[in-house]
Amino acid sequence: MTNDMEALQAELAAVRQELEDLRLQFPDALLEGDLATERVLYMNRLACQVFRCSAEDVQDLTAKDIFAEGDYERAQMETRERLTRGYAEGGGTRYVRSTQQDLREFNMRRKDGTIFPAETQSVFVADSFGHPRRIRTLVRDITARKELEARLEEMSVRDPLTGCFNRRYIDKRRAELEQDGAHWACLLFDLTGFKAINDTYGHAEGDRVLVAFAHFLLRLHRSEDILVRLGGDEFALFVRTLVEEEGRAVADRVIEAAQQGSPAAFNFGVAVRMAGEDVSRALSRADQMMYEAKGHSLHSKRD
Fold first, then answer.
1. Sheet harboring 184-191: ordered strands across?
2. Of 35, 77, 194, 287, which has the fewest CB atoms closer than 10 Å, so is most exposed?
3. Per residue in 113-172, pLDDT tens?
4. DSSP letters along 208-226, please?
5. Helix (H, G, I), strand (E, B), or coil: what is residue 46?
6. How far is it, in rounded angstroms, from Cα 32 to Cα 299?
7. How high is the pLDDT of residue 174?
8. What are phi and psi of 27, to 5 degrees?
């Protein structure tokens, strides 16, 4: 009997060691925390690498240490909500684990203070009475994925030829631009005789002219202004203004700059946003002014 018990204990110890080795070598960052104290109880090897800490550092960490400010409070709230739902499904006396995959995103903090975006997946570990006591979480550093998403998003709102923003970007900013207190002026441009350039010299030369003109406009705009290629040879510059005179001053600056060194002749119109006016209406007024200026193109005096 004694030998059987010893053999069983040895087998149990071997299984525990195997599980511990598996947990340590798990291919994702794995950590466990105490729900009551919020202390971090365990990090596997990859988790220590992700959070840039040693195994000895783990015992001094709490949830507040590993979540970025703001996200710590959100993690607390979402954990409480999950517990409340689980107990509600168990009639209030026992916790019932959700069958849904619990994937969430947080900004997390490494031991050196740097912040990184993470995807987490957590489960509660219950005691013998079925009450959750610990939380076990997989953490994946998704910095590379977020950077790729940001690059793709940037590409989606940029004109690939000139690097200016496109119409989709204006749609994204429309709510902001159309707020009651938003003050801006819209300058609308189109190139004179652009079709003739394409027909005479080819589309490669036409593209070169468009890029040069975009660079000309970029030199005139401030960091908070928005330069958009609306399509073809038409561009719009949205300039933040506090008073109407600022919009007119920008228009004067365009005229002066055009005389000094515009790469192509162009027409332009300007509309200072009126109270309650939407983007489309302001563009329409600028377009009307530009139409009325046809035949009076601006160009460099050096041409």
1. 226-231, 234-240, 184-191, 266-272
2. 77
3. 999 999 999 999 988 888 999 999 999 999 999 999 999 999 999 999 999 999 999 999
4. HHHHHHHHHHHHH--TTSE
5. helix
6. 68
7. 94
8. -75, 0
**What is the number of other CB atoms lying within 10 angstroms of the CB of residue 7?**
10
**Which DSSP letter does residue 240 get?**
E
- By CB atoms closer than 10 A (0-12, 13-18, 19+), residue 123 is middle
Model-wide pTM > 0.70 = no
Query: Number of helices and strands (H, E) in the chain?
Result: 11, 9
| Neighbouring-strand partners of residue 266 | 191, 298
- What residues are paired with 213 via a beta bridge? none
Q: How many residues does the chain have?
A: 303
Over residues 40-48, mean pLDDT:
93
8 A C-beta contact, residue 237 and residue 214: no
Options 3.40.1190.20, 3.30.70.141, 3.30.70.270, 3.40.630.30; CATH for 157-292 is 3.30.70.270
Q: Which architecture does CATH list for 2-147?
A: 2-Layer Sandwich (3.30)
Question: Quick check: 235 and 217 in contact, CB under 8 A?
Answer: yes
Q: Which of 167, 172, 176, 169 is nearest to 278 (CA)?
A: 176
Q: What pLDDT sits at residue 129?
A: 86
